[in-house]
Amino acid sequence: MNASTSFFDVIVIGGGHAGIEAANICAKLSLETALFTLSKDKIGHMPCNTAIGGTAKGIVVREIDALGGIMGSMADKNVLQMKMLNTSKGASVQCLRAQVDKISYPKTAQKILGKLEQLTIIEKPIMNLIIENNKICGVTTSKKTYNCSIVILTTGTYMASVTMKGDDRNSEGPDNQKTFKGLSNQLKALGFKLIRLKTGTPPRIEDSTISYSNLEVAPGSKQKLSFSFWKDSPIESNDYIDCFITRTTPETKQIILDNLSKSSMYNGTTVATGPRYCPSIEDKIVRFTERDTHQLFLERESMETDSIYLQGLSTSLPNDVQAKILKTIPGLEKAKALKWGYAIEYDAIYPTQLNSSLETKIISNLFCAGQVNGTSGYEEAAAQGLIAGINASQKLKGKSPLVLKRNEAYIGVLIDDLTTKGTNEPYRLLTSTAEYRLLLRNDNADKRLFKHAFEVGTINEKQYQKVAQKYNKVTQTLEILKDIFISPSEWNKTHPSIKIKNKESAYQLLKKNDITIEDVLKHTQIKMTFTEAFIVSTEIKYAGYLAKQDKHIKEFLKKENMAIPKGFNYQSVLNFSSETKKRFCEVQPLTIGQASRIQGINPSDVFTLMYEIKKLFRKSKI
User: Fold this and answer.
1) CATH homologous superfamily, domain 562-621
2) CATH T-level topology, domain 7-198+347-456
């Protein structure tokens, strides 16, 4: 399709990570799709750190991949370094993190989208949304109207955005790009509650001016790793580049304290809320006064540039103060900045105004995804874009939306938290936000989600069978290990430091903390990949905990699946306080489980709600 066409099934506004996934999946699902962006060359742009994954986020990328998204495979193709985090801890918190190439990653995204026959990329800013009878019908640019069935808004940090350094404020998006102003005003006029959020970025340093001799090396993992489940051969670790670690000093701290009044965060230039879990260096100094130093990472942005990202030094201090700070940091005494750090504030939609499908409650057929929903991070944005795209397709086909439960995916936790609890700061996923994190592991995202993906049409029969066969093999191996017995004489010869006294099955041996799957497989004829072996080992070592979580989930689902009648009149419940009524009316929960997670709702409110629903049900039976 070409840009002269005036009707599309779906229009996606914004070419960031949410927009990429939304546009890609809609086109793959045979929807005539348009992606509106200010510049094709900026599709997939990474204005902050060029990292994909991290704690919890790495599992989200695996979930995106399992559901048919492309972030994981794009990261694999453009990786500079990859590591498995938290390997010294339990399986529930182990996550992948990759440093990817800032220049080649967007090019990969642009190439993938450019090949989609049912996707048209249009380089024009959107001036207005066309709304009729509380339903979206299209969009307008400065010269033309484009009609559609569904709009997916993925404007990221570009709605009424302002960049800040010291006292300077500039009306612009990241990296001096244009900002969307009209959409904020229109959304407010339509009745949406907007919130003002803030994030920031650190200086970029010229590699040749850094003294690496005394810095700590931060290498990638030694084993072969990849985000994508569909990749035949994981990436060779000897192709990774090293990152490096340094620290701020007491002198750094003093310079920042002396210049706090020049920081946009502390001189009244901004009142927007920043991310708690990715604070600026000024925020770290103020919040953690007992610390004299803070860790920083030096990470290469691309093999095509000399630019090093200084992770941990996000700041809105003026350039001259940033220059003084660099001179106090080991290895950066003579460093030359290629780009100075800055803060950016922007408008976001308060996310309780969204259904769990990511369609807005106020305007029918308008979906929102990414940082416009109050989240932070490329991964959270991509996940929402994928779900919004899938649910746009589901709605146009007259099917129920894909709503992932909290026990099924971190994506389910993310969307449930946003739409039920809301957020007053840039939301970031952490493993601690998932109550069933032992089930939501890095290794088993394909098992958890492949049936959903096949049902909505985002993976094919071949991919479905590949996952099914993989877990059939895992199940069979678990049974085989119960029937393989190893004698003390056989075991103790090869493992003198971990001796056993009695003949034991391979399965029982693997329950011991100090015995690995590699140790056991040496005494069998079983051949497994690294990933398959990890899954088998985890299933055995955590069998007791997994059984407990399964029990909790059954109890959780009873409450989760108890539906609240559509249009339930919360105002009529005498035992509800005015605040409780307000919160229920704002969120409009679909189930008792969702109602129980609303901020400010206590157990007695939930019990009262359950009683009222049962009373209604009894009346309807009479």
Assistant:
1) GidA associated domain, C-terminal subdomain (1.10.150.570)
2) FAD/NAD(P)-binding domain (3.50.50)
Contact 85, 95 (CB under 8 A): yes
- Enter the tokens of residue 326: 């660099």
**What are the residue ranges spanned by the domains of the chain?**
7-198+347-456, 204-345, 461-549, 562-621
CATH 1.10.10.1800 fits 461-549, yes or no: yes
Residue 417 is classified by DSSP as: I
Cβ neighbour number for residue 491 with a 10 Å cutoff: 21
Query: What six digits make up the tokens of 244?
Result: 């490096």
* CA torsion angle 82 84 86 87 (round to 10): -140
Q: List the chain residues with pLDDT less than 70.
A: 1-5, 232-238, 621-622
Residue-wise pLDDT tens digits, 108-142: 999 999 999 999 999 999 999 999 999 999 999 98
Tokens of 621: 């039976």
**Hey, is 90 helix, strand or coil?**
coil
Of 196, 119, 82, 123, which Cα lies nearest the Cα of 424? 196
3-state secondary structure 471-533: HHHHHHHHHHHHHCEECHHHHHHHCCCCCCCCCEEHHHHHCCCCCCHHHHHCCCCCCCCHHHH
Measure the CA–CA gap between 446 and 125, rounded to whole angstroms.
37
Note the pLDDT of residue 357: 98
Which pLDDT belongs to residue 179?
Answer: 87
The Cα-based distances of 38 to 26, 111, 297, 328, 448 in angstroms read 20, 17, 32, 40, 37
Tokens matching residue 119:
């996707």
Give the model's pLDDT for residue 39: 93
pLDDT of residue 1: 47
Residue 4: the pLDDT is: 54
